[in-house]
Amino acid sequence: MQNLVSVIIPCFNQGHFLGKAIKSVLGQTHKHYEIIVVDDGSEDETKSVATGFTEVEYIFQTRQGLSAARNRGIDHSRGDYIVFLDSDDWLNFTALETNLDYLLKNPALAFVSGAHSIYFQEGAQVILVEKEVTDNNFIHLLEGNYIKMIATVMFRKKVLESYRYDTSLKVCEDYDLYLRIARHYPVIQHTVLVAYYRKHESNLTRNYLFMLDTVLKVLENQKSSLNGNAEITAFNSGIASWKLFYTGEMYHELRNQLHGGAEINKNYINSLKKYNPTLYLKFKKEHYSLTIRRSLKKVIPGFIVKIIRRSDLREMGKINLGDLNRTKPFSEEFGYDRGGPIDRYYIENFLQNNESRIRGRVLEVADNDYTMRFGGVKVSQSDILHIDESNPNATIIADLSNAPQLPDNSFDCIVLTQTLQFIYNAKDALKTCFRILKPGGVLLMTVPGITQISQDQWSKSWHWSFTENSVSKLLLESFSPEKVKNEVFGNVLTASAFLFGMGLPELTKEQMDFPDPNFQVIITSVAVK
Q1: Residue 330 lies in a domain
Q2: Torsion angle of alpha carbons 140, 145, 149, 152, nearest 10°?
Q3: Cα–Cα separations (whole angstroms), residue 428 to 106, 195, 361, 425, 475
Q4: Which of 141, 9, 14 lies closest to 76, judged by CA?
Q5: 413 backbone dihedrals φ, ψ, rounded to 5°
Q6: Is there a single domain that holds both residue 357 and residue 259?
Q7: Based on the domain organization, do 377 and 264 belong to the same domain?
């Protein structure tokens, strides 16, 4: 049958959900499909529900796990295209038609994925999840699983003949498969709604420690095949992001247990201690404080408890420095060896917020990682500038502070991140940027404020740290005031953590995002010609 799509639905004791999943396939606008239900040893009504539909091919196997059930479905499929639909989820009525259209128009693609919505049983809240990724997908997947839901994916069966699910993985098996395929084949993600994900108490994704251990294992499996700085950076960013995400979930769960009077999950506490010491200490302090308050309430009138709670117990000279009682930083590599530098959080958020400006002909210094990551298909030409010929990837050799060989009005965008501190004549470097930008072209710049000094070969070239005032004065030498927007990021905690070489996973998002202009870790600038 032409363009036959095999929809494989594994099911284990979720017969009460299965009917909706099957009906969502029967209602598709694309009518050339087959439905294969793989019963993974269910003891409920799964068989009766599945066999109640004449369109369904029912397969039973003794309990082997989700990955084995999906592989079994592949073995029995007849279609050239395959969709995996979990029994508690369902498809949007145009799902097969939408994804098949992408694969037919792009024969090189191994798979295509789309958007999904999350359905909460309590309150039926629906949240649309969207992110378009059309290039560098392997790098994006190293940074995190942007696909999130397997039912949004349509595979070419010929690819799955070489790549199967790893049956040793009980969770994150999809993420593992995406990474292995995207390593060798082009894939894309679009933003058309494809499927609905049902959130409920028995979702495996709620087992945060198990999820974290497994996702780190999945990423580590890719480590030996990483190629180039972009992939290594993405890998490190992914490791840090997963640790930050799941320890954050564990922390909130621990707080719920603490305040709800439930038994504290000691494994979660140990995981926080290992992967996120900041949250670990925060929880320990909260646990101690709550224990004291509960004890006081039993013996002291409530109004005295309030007085004690409000008093400042940290007398002068009584601060416990703890792990910070040291004269050497934890890392002399800005935190790269502790999950990623704190300043990169601000830098990459800045570029993400301005990604629409990274387009046309773009110039970046040293490499074009940010150009391609945030500009993608919007970039028609990517140039890499370096001070000398030691960089084989450089397309332009020049000193930005004295570069008469660079023609006027040439670039739509210049990405200048953490570079200006290495240029002694910073004022002339910015004048060059203004000159070589096209009218309407934009300079996206970040500079260090409170920072370590690089201890590698660049240490002797590190001339400056900046403030928002100094950056503003430098830019206004060339750019019009109404065309310049500067922002500062950081606070006393992030500045201290950055100086100590702590890694990004060791702070929470809330701590990172708290603004205090008196502690300028990073200054960002958007300057338009």
Answers
A1: no
A2: 10
A3: 47, 53, 22, 6, 10
A4: 9
A5: -155, 145
A6: no
A7: no
